[in-house]
């Protein structure tokens, strides 16, 4: 029998979507023109002249993109990047994924836009989702963005409980409409948040808000939360909204028992437990849902980043038994769940299930995290490697003071971009989450490049 190299063996073992998407990275990254190149800057200025508002990553690295293929993204100056942001965890199955394109093209030619009307792809998608959503979360409403879905989830909680108060957590992010912003960590509103919204520390043990150690604290934050609810609530609690693994603060994973603690508090208070799985859902963390790692089933979830592979579609899924009470609640939106979005979603879910990308994310993510923990050992500016599956991030400190450092994180982000790896940055953290269709070989190559970028930054500190 002819012998095969380990690389060839790994390539053979990769599922079809992984083999397809990762092949584009064989000769990437390829930076021929220093980033940002002149054409990028010109494109940036044209956009900047017409947009209001600032977007952190864009203003830090004004690169104009023109096309993408698999795990790569090409800028208008001819550079090729390996994309580990993919929009923002949207194009998880690869840019220009041919199976999603075929589904979208076919549906555009049949019927592109309807308003909630019954149609075949909508029905098929809901039937498929019911097979994979946790517990009996088998009733659905469709939207186009995460923040709308967050609002929709909160409306479910208000309708079911009759309450209007919400508990949310430091480090989580649920979007930029008024209700979602009222759940935020820090004040991201131009003014006060809505009444009845309370934000508390969660179990981020690496920098415990209570200065305790996980081995001995007995999940003090959960006890504290229950007391804090008692002293802040007017008895009108509607929901506890949480990211089971955070995207808002990178990729924080909580200790065993924490999510169960939230479930118990929700049960005791009558609040609904809402999990925001917008980023983590559909397999990215190595389980179909991040809550599955702890066996915790919430009352409502919302998700969507990966669902249409970047084509806008988000879902609120809630318990079967709420159906009658919600019937007249009127969850609906003009573009939510339109047929083309449903077709993109169906194709995406089919790929995830056919290629068992959940298992792929679990094994490739574990290999990445092991490498990342080595990076933590080797580099004093890296405080911690976070994450599970392909939801991964590094948190940075000033190596002299040991204090969390947005400046170091920003410098590492820029150094990655200069080397042709495109991560995302949030405060003191950069997310280094490869697309779900990244092979282990390419994922480890990404981590090596990120380490080189970190070393560059450390040399200049
Ligand atoms: C976990 C999470 N929830 C909600 C949102 C808001 O989603 P959108 O930007 O689609 O409104 C985001 C966006 O990044 C997110 O990461």
Written account of the structure:
The chain has 461 residues and is α/β, with parallel strands linked by helices. It has two domains: 6-96 and 356-459, Aspartate Aminotransferase, domain 1; 111-354, Aspartate Aminotransferase, domain 2 (3-Layer(aba) Sandwich). Helices cover 40% and strands 15% of the residues. It is built from 16 helices and 15 strands. It has helices at 6-13, 16-23, 38-48, 56-60, 86-89, 98-110, 120-132, 146-161, 178-181, 220-232, 258-269, 323-326, 339-354, 357-378, 406-419, 440-459; strands at residues 65-69, 72-75, 80-83, 139-143, 165-169, 197-200, 237-242, 272-276, 300-303, 314-318, 382-388, 391-396, 421-422, 424-426, 429-431. Strands 4-10-9-8-7-5-6 form a seven-stranded mixed β-sheet, sandwiched between helices. The chain has a four-stranded mixed β-sheet with strand order 1-2-3-13. Strands 11-12-15-14 form a four-stranded antiparallel β-sheet. Helix 7 packs parallel to helix 13 (339-354), helix 14 runs parallel beside helix 16 and helix 15 packs across helix 16. The longest helix has 22 residues, at 357-378. It starts with 5 loop residues before the first helix and ends with a helix. The mean pLDDT is 95. Pyridoxal-5'-phosphate (PLP) binds at residues 88, 145-147, 150, 173-175, 243, 247-248, 276, 278-279. Residues 88, 145-147, 150, 173-175, 243, 247-248, 276, 278-279 line the site of pyridoxal-5'-phosphate (PLP).
């Amino acid at each position: 029998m002819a012998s095969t190299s380990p690389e060839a063996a790994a390539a053979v073992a990769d599922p079809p979507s992984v083999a397809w998407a990762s092949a584009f990275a064989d000769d990437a990254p390829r930076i021929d023109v220093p980033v940002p190149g002149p054409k990028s800057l010109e494109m940036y200025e044209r956009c900047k002249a017409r947009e209001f508002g600032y977007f952190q990553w864009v203003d830090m690295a004004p690169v104009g993109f023109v096309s993408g293929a698999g795990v790569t993204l090409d800028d208008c100056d001819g550079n090729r990047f390996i994309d580990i942001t993919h929009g923002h965890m949207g194009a998880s199955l690869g840019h220009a994924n041919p199976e999603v394109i075929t589904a979208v093209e076919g549906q555009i030619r049949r019927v592109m836009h309807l308003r909630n009307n019954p149609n075949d792809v909508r029905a098929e998608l809901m039937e498929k989702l019911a097979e994979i959503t946790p517990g009996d979360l088998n009733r659905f409403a469709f939207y186009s963005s995460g923040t709308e879905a967050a609002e929709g989830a909160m409306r479910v909680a208000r309708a079911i409980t009759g309450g209007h108060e919400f508990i949310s957590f430091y480090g989580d992010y649920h979007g930029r409409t008024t209700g979602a912003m009222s759940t935020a960590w820090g004040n991201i509103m131009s003014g006060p948040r809505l009444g009845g919204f309370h934000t508390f520390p969660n179990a981020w043990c690496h920098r415990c808000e209570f200065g305790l150690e996980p081995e001995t604290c007995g999940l003090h934050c959960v006890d504290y939360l229950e007391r804090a609810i008692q002293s802040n609530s007017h008895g009108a609690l509607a929901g506890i909204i949480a990211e089971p693994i955070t995207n808002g603060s990178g990729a924080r994973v909580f200790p065993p028992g924490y999510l169960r603690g939230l479930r118990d508090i929700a049960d005791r208070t009558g609040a609904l437990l809402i999990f925001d799985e917008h980023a983590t859902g559909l397999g990215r963390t190595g389980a179909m849902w991040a809550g599955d790692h702890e066996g915790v089933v919430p009352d409502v979830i919302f998700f969507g980043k990966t669902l249409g592979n970047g084509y806008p579609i988000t879902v609120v899924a809630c318990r079967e038994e709420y159906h009658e009470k919600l019937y007249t609640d009127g969850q609906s939106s003009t573009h939510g769940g339109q047929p083309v979005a449903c077709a993109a979603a169906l194709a995406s879910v089919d790929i995830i299930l056919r290629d068992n990308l959940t298992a792929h994310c679990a094994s490739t993510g574990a290999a990445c995290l092991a490498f990342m923990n080595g990076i933590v050992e080797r580099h004093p500016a890296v405080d911690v490697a976070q994450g599970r599956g392909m939801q991964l991030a590094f948190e940075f400190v000033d190596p002299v003071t040991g204090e969390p450092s947005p400046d170091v994180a920003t410098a590492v982000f820029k150094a990655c971009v200069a080397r042709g790896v495109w991560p995302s940055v949030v405060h003191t953290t950069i997310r280094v989450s490869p697309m779900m269709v990244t092979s282990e070989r390419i994922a480890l190559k990404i981590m090596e490049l990120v380490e080189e970028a970190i070393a560059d930054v450390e040399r200049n500190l």
